[in-house]
C-alpha cells in the first residue's frame, strides 16, 4: 500500500495490484499500461518472471521489487531496474522516470 500511495502521489494511475502470479500474468497479457512494478516473490513459491517475459515481449518497461537484491532476479532479466525493499521513495521516483522514458 505504501508503494501505491507513493505512485499515486507521483501522478501515476494504478492498475492492480494483482493478488497472484496468475492475476499478474493475465493483466500483463490484457491490460494497457505504460510501466509495471513486479514483486519478485509472490508467495507459495510463485514469482513474477513469467509476467516479466510477457511484458518484455509487449515492449512494456518494468522494474522488479525485491528484498534479495539482484540475486533474487533471474539472470536473464537482470537488465531491468531492481528496487530493493524497503523502497526508498527517491529511488522509486528515479526508476519510474527512467521507465517512463524507455
Describe the 3D structure.
The protein has a three-stranded parallel β-sheet, with helices on both faces. Helices cover 39% and strands 17% of the residues. A hairpin with a 2-residue loop joins strand 2 and strand 3. The chain is globular, with a radius of gyration of 13 Å. The protein is an alpha/beta fold. It contains four helices and five strands, in the order H-H-E-E-E-H-E-E-H. The mean pLDDT is 91. The chain has one domain: Rossmann fold (3-Layer(aba) Sandwich).
List keywords for this structure.
Rossmann fold; 102 residues; three-stranded parallel β-sheet; two-stranded antiparallel sheet; alpha/beta
Task: Describe the SSE topology.
Elements: H1 2-9, H2 21-30, E1 36-39, E2 41-43, E3 46-47, H3 49-58, E4 62-66, E5 82-84, H4 89-100
Parallel strand pairs: 1-4, 4-5
Antiparallel strand pairs: 2-3
Amino acid at each position: 500500500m505504501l508503494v501505491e500511495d507513493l505512485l499515486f502521489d507521483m501522478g501515476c494511475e494504478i492498475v492492480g495490484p494483482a493478488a497472484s502470479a496468475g492475476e499478474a500474468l493475465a493483466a500483463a497479457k490484457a491490460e494497457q499500461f505504460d510501466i509495471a512494478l513486479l514483486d519478485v516473490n509472490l508467495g507459495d513459491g510463485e514469482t513474477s518472471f513469467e509476467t516479466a517475459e510477457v511484458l518484455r515481449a509487449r515492449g512494456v518497461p518494468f522494474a522488479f521489487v525485491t528484498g534479495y537484491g539482484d540475486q533474487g532476479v533471474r539472470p536473464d532479466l537482470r537488465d531491468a531496474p531492481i528496487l530493493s525493499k524497503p523502497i526508498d521513495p527517491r529511488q522509486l521516483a528515479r526508476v519510474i522516470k527512467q521507465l517512463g522514458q524507455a
